[in-house]
Amino acid sequence: MITESYYWKKPLLTGAKFIQRHMDAEKISDEQIAQIEREIFIGFYSIRKILEATAKVSAQTRDMKVALRWFPKKADQPIVDWYNRNEFWDLYNLERPLQEFRDLLYVSHRMVHSFIFNLSGDDEGHGAFFTSDRDKESRLNFLSTNEIVRIFEVVGNDYPSDFHAWRDPDTGEMKWSVDSGENFT
Question: What is the per-residue pLDDT across 157-170, written as a single tens digit (0 to 9) for each?
Answer without folding.
Answer: 999 877 777 788 99
